[in-house]
Every structure is written in structure tokens, then in C-alpha cells.
Amino acid sequence: MNDLTVNRQTFDEVMVPVFSPAAFVPDRGEGSRVWDTQGRDYIDFTGGIAVTALGHSHPELLRVLREQGEKVWHVSNAYTNEPVLRLAKRLEALTFADRAFFANSGAEANEAALKLARRVAVERHGEDKYEIVSFTQSFHGRTFFTVSVGGQPKYAEGFGPQPAGIIHLPYNDIEAAKQAIGPKTCAVIVEPIQGEGGVIPADPAFLRALREACDTHGALLIFDEVQTGVGRTGHFYAYMDTGVTPDILTTAKSLGNGFPIGAMLTTKEVAAHFKVGVHGTTYGGNPLGAAIADKVVELVSAPALLEGVRERSAAIKAKLAELNERFGIFTEVRGKGLLIGAELTSAYEGRAKDFVNAAAKHGAMLLIAGPNVLRFAPSLIIPQADIDEGFARLAKAIEEVVGATNEAHAK
Fold it and tell me: Which residues span the membrane (predicted)?
């Protein structure tokens, strides 16, 4: 047998090089703390990119994992199962939806939503109604269809001809949307807060204008809540705080707290256009993932937990304000709940990754949202003590980057 000793260098030797992971290798986690293979501990402000909503090794989720794991993991969609039916009922009771489709990821949920929207338009209006409106800097996944719909060309270029009928508009530009959405539009897909694009919240008036334009032209409004959903903004889904209800909602990330699961939620009338055999998935809706997600939804939808998200949001924004008063490195802090972006000043343009790397050296895990924005998406139940400790470590990291920058300028 080959030597199975592994470390960070092993990644470069055995993995397809589409990622550039950190120098340390996480080994175990508990709550909002992670320990690497060398035993060093880190405060986790990443939440696995807004995924581990209930932190690491949550006892209730571990209990469900063991109980369902001892029953049945997978049966295929030739059969249904009780956990997935309970999960669907719970999500539908919480939302506008009365039909659910389960997949393995946010990309697959968006793929299903976009295919469904096209199918609805063709069956209701004919082949000419196929245009999809999306927005610049948006992100909807890495399948070929979703990456083409996403508004970041760097992710879609270099793979040959892209699907036709996709229009990208400026985010939060009401007039541009009114002019572009028309008789050929089958769907508009929008993130209530652009996550990968820089943590940019939608103006409620912009979302209302999209709803009105879709209604006028018989198009479907899709909310991509892969990152904003399941309590992340302090509301179970972000749409609930906008006064706008979509026709289709996609959700993943926090839904399984790290177990791969995604969902497309919609109405009975729209869902009727996906007949038997029109779309499918092998693993989607498996009983193990559904059981875990059902417990996540039960816990996160509790009003006290959602109120706690809003309280933690205020605490983190206050900490960022203190850092900015000390170092003057942010032009803006924005976002809702525990999806927060801090945009760097021009003096540190393009250097968000430098701060992330320095934070890791000092024991804090941090994200970026593009080259100029530090992104915070921790567990929704991160203790105040971990927020305090994490920001103490982050202050040391910022001090290091700022000091090195000032020294370089002095030379």
C-alpha cells in the first residue's frame, strides 16, 4: 500500500488545481473554534462560507446523524422517504412555497430553478420566451448554465460558446431593469444580498421593481438565497424582510450545516410544469441529508435564535467600527445579520487576501468577497467570547499588515 501520510503539500500533488487552500489543514471543530493538524486553534468567522450555521459538531445534529445513519442513508428517487417529506413540509410551512425539489448543492438548486423557468415559459407562452435576466457581479454556481447566468465573466470564459438568451444588468439599477425585462423574459434571478460579488444588499425598491416587471411581462422571479437563506440575515429567508415574494427560491449552504443539500422551493402552479422524468437527481433528497437539514431548519427557525443573529450582527459591526477607528482601513461596512462585508480603502486595494492570510497566522479564519472585501459569515450562534477573542486576534493581524505596508511606503 502507498504511504497515506498527508499534509498541505499533498494537495498540490494529488488534487486538480482549481483551489488554493490555506497553509494549515483543519482537523476538528467544536462550536466556533477549529483546530488544525498541528493542534493550533482558530476562531472561525467563515462558517465554511456561510454553511455551518450551527457551528461545528453541534450535539443535536450529531444525534440525528447517528440515528438516521443507523437506519438508511440512501434509497434513490425510485422511492420517497420520511425525512425528506418532513423537511419539505417544514420548509413549506415557513415560506410562500408549497412544492420542493431537493438537490446536493446551491448550483444544482439554481440549475433546477432556471430549467423550470424556461420550461414554464415555453409551455405557457411558446419558444420565443426564453431570456433570463441576471445582474453583474452575481454568483449562482459553477455548472455551465449557472456560471453563464452569473454576472462574473472570469468564471464563465474559456469554456466555449455559452447558452443563449442571458442578459446581465447593473445591480440595484431600477431603470435598466424596467427597460430590459420584456415579452421575451422568462425569468429574473437575483440575490437579495450579493455574496461573492462583495456583500452588497439589494435596495428593497429594486426588488419591488423586479417583482412588478415580472408580473407585467409574465416572467418568473427567482431569489437565489443559497447564501442568504436559513437565518443568515436574521430572518429565516431574506425575502421575508423585503416585502417581495419570489416565484422560486433556491437554498443550500446553511440548510445542511455542512452536509451537502440544496433545495428549490416554488408554488404548486409553477411546479406542475416539471412532470415525471423532466428533471432529476441521484442523491438529491437522500434520507441522511434530509434528516440533518430538518433538524437545522427546526433549530434555526426559532425566533430566539433569529433574534440572536441580529444581536451578534450588531456586535460584529461594532467591533469592525472599533478596528476602523484604530486603523482606518475600511471605506464601508455593509450587509445584514451575519453576512457582513468590510470594504478596504484604496490604500489596500486588491489586498483582502493579505488580511486573510495574516488572520490565519494569528488564529482567526476569515473570508474575502472579491479582492477588496473582507467577509464575515460565522456560525449563527457564535458565542460573544469567541467574537471578542477572534477580533483580538484579527487586530494583531491588521496591525501586522498595516505596519508592513507603512514600512514599505517609508522606503
Answer: none
**Residue 285 marked in a binding site:** no
- Binding site annotation covers 294? no
Residue 282 marked as a ligand binder? yes
Nearest to 32 by CA among 396, 398, 312, 311: 312
141 is in an annotated binding site: no
Q: Does 131 belong to an annotated binding site?
A: no
Radius of gyration of the chain (CA): 22
- The annotation status of 142 as a binding-site residue, yes or no, is yes
Q: Residue 65: inside a domain, yes or no?
A: no
Distance linking the first and last C-alpha atoms of the chain: 54
Residue 96 assigned ligand-binding role: no
pLDDT by residue (tens digit) across 222-273? 999 999 999 999 999 999 999 999 999 999 999 999 999 999 999 999 999 9
Please give the backbone phi and psi of residue 226, each rounded to the nearest 5 degrees, phi first: -60, -45
Are residue 139 and residue 76 in the same domain, yes or no? yes
Assigned C-alpha cell, 282: 441521484
* Domain final position from 251, 272, 300: 300
Give the number of C-alpha atoms closer than 13 A to the C-alpha of residue 165, restricted to the C-beta side.
Answer: 18
Q: What is the DSSP letter of 278?
A: S
Q: Is 224 annotated as a binding residue?
A: yes
Coil/strand/helix, residue 239 = helix
On whether 3 is known to bind a ligand per the annotation, the reply is: no
For range 126-144, the mean pLDDT: 96
Is there a domain that residue 63 lies in?
no
Residues 142 and 239 in one domain: yes
Can you give the residue range of the structural domain that contains 362? 8-57+303-410
CB atoms within 10 A of CB 204: 13
What integer pLDDT is reported at residue 144 of this predicted model?
Answer: 93
Q: What is the pLDDT of residues 394-406, one digit of tens each?
A: 999 999 999 888 7
Is 107 annotated to bind a ligand? Reply is: yes
Name the residue among 310, 281, 305 with its Cα closest to residue 295: 305
pLDDT at position 264 is: 98
CATH assignment of the domain containing 377: 3.90.1150.10
Pairing of strands 41-44, 364-365: parallel
Which residues, including other chains, have CB under 8 Å from residue 296's CB and lie 6 or more apart?
Answer: 53, 54, 61, 230, 254, 255, 256, 257
Q: pLDDT per residue over 165-204, tens digit each?
A: 999 999 999 999 999 999 999 999 999 999 999 999 999 9
